[in-house]
Design a protein that fits this description.
There is one protein chain. The chain contains 18 helices and twelve strands. The chain is an alpha/beta fold and about 450 residues long. The chain has two domains: about 110 residues, Rossmann fold, CATH 3.40.50.2000; about 250 residues, Alpha-Beta Complex (Spore Coat Polysaccharide Biosynthesis Protein SpsA, Chain A). Strands 4, 5, 6, 7, 8, 9, 10, 11 and 12 form a nine-stranded mixed beta sheet that branches. The protein has a three-stranded parallel beta sheet with strand order 1-2-3, sandwiched between helices. It starts with 8 loop residues before the first helix and ends with a helix.
C-alpha cells in the first residue's frame, strides 16, 4: 500500500490510467465529481453507499458499493472485484463510461434543469402574502405601530443624507428623478455641511429641482440624519440613498411591488454595481440569520423600507463610531421580525471614491462596531450560536471578510499606519526578496 497524498491533476490522470480499481470512501458528497470523472474514464469504482454515490452507481452493473456501517461489505466487494475476469472488468468500465456520457453531459443536465424550471413556472400562482423564508423570525414588533396614521398610501419618500459632498448630489438626484416609479417625495437632509462648494450646491438644488425638499439641521451623523429624514417623510414607503450614489430606473418600482405583496417583508435591497474608482459587483444575499449576523451579506446603504417598520427600529444614533449603522439597522429590524429581502439584480450603483466613510475605517474601529452590534443583540445571536460557531470554524472571522468595494491589494489599516503608506510599501516589497520576508513577518505581528 502506497499513500501518495495530494497530487497535481496531471499526476492523478497518470495514476488513474494504471488503476485496476478506484476506491472512493467519501461519506457525504452530494454529487460526487470524482466518481463521475473516474467512471467517465471507464474505470471500475468501489464507493461508499453514503452520500450521493448511489445516484451515479448501480451496484454490480457499472460500479460497486459498500456500506461504512458494515465494514465487512468493503472486503467482500473488494474480493469480488479482484476475482473478476478482464473482460468483465472492461464491460463494467464501458457501462460506467456510457452512463456518464449519456446521463451527465451538459446538454442532458441543462434540459432537465430547464424542464424543472418550466414546470415550476407553469404552476398556477399561489395567492400567498407571506414570503417563504427558510427560517422565519417571529414578529415581535408592535403591530399597532405598523400602520402610520397620515402617511400617503403608495408614496415613496426618498431620503438623501448630505454632508460636504459637493456637486455629486446632482447625479444622485437625476438618477432618482429618472425612476420609473413616479409617486415620489424627494428629501435632501443637509447634516450641517460646512464646505462652501457643498453649500452652493444646496442652493442650486433649490433652484434647479423645485420638487425636491432641502432641509438643514446641525451635524449629528449619518444614522441620526436617516432617522430625522424618516420623521420628516410622509410616504408609506421610504428609500435611503447616499448623496453620491445612483439607482437603476426600475429599482424603486420593483422594490415597492415586493413590499406591497408580502406582509412579512419590511425592507428590500438588491445587488450592487460599482462605478467610479473601481468596477465590479456585490451579489447581495438574503438578509437572513445566521449568515448575516456574522457579516453583512447585504449592501444595506440603499434600501427601500415600509416607513412604519423603519420607525420602529431605525438607525442607532448611539453607536460610538459612525459606520455600519445600516447593518445594525437591519439586524435590529430582524430581531423584531421585521425581515427583508434582496432582489437578485444590480439595481443600485455604488460610487467608489477616495475619502469615503468605509475607507477611513481602522481595524480597531471595525472590531469595535462588530462587538457593539453583537453585544446589543446578544439574545438574538444566542438563538443561532451553533450555526454561527460552525460558520466561523469553516470560514474564519467575519470581521475581516473581504469587502467587495476594496480593490485588490487594499488593506484595512491599523490606526498608526495609513493605507497609502501600506499600499506603496507593498508594491516595493513585492519586488524585493528580503523586504518581502520582513513585510510578511510584520504582517503576522499586526494582524
Amino acid at each position: 500500500l502506497q499513500l501518495l497524498g495530494k497530487l497535481p491533476s496531471k499526476e492523478i490522470k497518470t495514476h488513474l490510467e494504471k488503476a485496476h480499481i478506484v476506491f472512493i470512501p467519501s461519506l457525504f458528497d452530494n454529487l460526487p465529481y470524482t466518481v463521475l470523472e473516474t467512471m467517465s474514464q471507464g474505470k471500475v469504482v468501489l464507493a461508499s453507499k453514503q452520500g450521493g454515490h448511489t445516484e451515479a452507481i448501480e451496484n454490480g452493473v457499472d460500479g460497486f458499493l459498500f456500506d461504512h456501517d458494515q465494514p465487512s461489505t468493503f472486503f467482500d466487494q473488494l474480493k469480488h472485484i479482484m476475482a473478476l475476469e478482464d473482460d468483465e472488468i472492461f464491460a463494467i468500465g464501458e457501462r460506467a463510461r456510457k452512463k456518464i456520457t449519456d446521463k451527465y453531459n451538459y446538454e442532458t443536465i441543462y434540459e432537465q434543469k430547464m424542464q424543472a424550471i418550466q414546470a415550476y413556472l407553469d404552476k398556477p400562482a399561489e395567492n400567498n402574502n407571506f414570503f417563504p423564508y427558510i427560517r422565519p423570525v417571529p414578529l415581535e414588533a408592535d403591530t399597532a405601530k405598523l400602520q402610520l396614521a397620515g402617511s400617503k398610501k403608495g408614496l415613496l419618500s426618498v431620503v438623501i443624507p448630505y454632508y460636504n459632498l459637493g456637486d455629486l448630489l446632482f447625479e444622485t438626484l437625476d438618477s432618482v428623478l429618472a425612476s420609473n416609479y413616479k409617486n415620489l417625495e424627494v428629501i435632501v437632509i443637509d447634516d450641517g455641511s460646512t464646505d462652501p462648494e457643498s453649500l452652493k450646491t444646496l442652493d442650486l438644488v433649490k433652484e434647479r429641482y423645485p420638487q425636491v425638499k432641502v432641509i438643514h439641521k446641525p451635524n449629528t451623523g449619518l444614522g441620526d440624519t436617516r432617522n430625522f429624514g424618516a420623521q420628516q417623510a410622509t410616504g408609506e414607503f421610504m428609500a435611503v440613498i447616499d448623496a453620491d450614489d445612483k439607482i437603476d430606473a426600475t429599482y424603486y418600482e420593483k422594490a415597492v411591488r415586493v413590499l406591497e405583496k408580502y406582509e412579512n417583508v419590511h425592507f428590500v435591497g438588491c445587488w450592487c454595481q460599482y462605478f467610479g474608482n473601481w468596477t465590479g459587483m456585490w451579489p447581495s444575499f438574503m438578509p437572513e440569520p445566521p449568515f448575516f449576523l456574522v457579516h453583512n451579506t447585504m449592501n444595506s446603504s440603499a434600501l427601500i423600507f415600509k416607513r412604519a417598520s423603519f420607525l420602529q427600529a431605525g438607525n442607532d444614533p448611539n453607536m460610538a463610531f459612525h459606520g455600519m449603522e445600516d447593518w445594525e439597522c437591519i439586524v435590529n429590524m430582524t430581531t423584531k421580525g421585521l425581515t427583508g429581502a434582496s432582489l437578485p439584480e444590480p439595481l443600485f450603483h455604488y460610487r467608489i471614491r477616495e475619502g469615503s466613510m468605509f475607507r477611513r475605517f481602522t481595524r480597531n474601529k471595525i472590531y469595535h462596531l462588530h462587538a457593539y452590534i453583537t453585544n446589543k443583540h446578544s439574545k438574538f445571536y444566542q438563538r443561532y450560536t451553533a450555526d454561527i460557531v460552525n460558520i466561523l470554524n469553516t470560514n474564519g472571522t467575519g470581521v475581516l471578510t473581504d469587502n467587495p468595494t476594496m480593490e485588490q491589494g487594499y488593506v484595512v489599516r491599523n490606526p498608526i499606519i495609513s493605507n497609502r503608506i501600506i499600499n506603496k510599501f507593498a508594491v516595493i516589497a513585492r519586488k524585493n526578496y528580503y523586504l518581502k520576508k520582513i513585510a510578511l513577518k510584520v504582517k503576522r505581528l499586526i494582524s
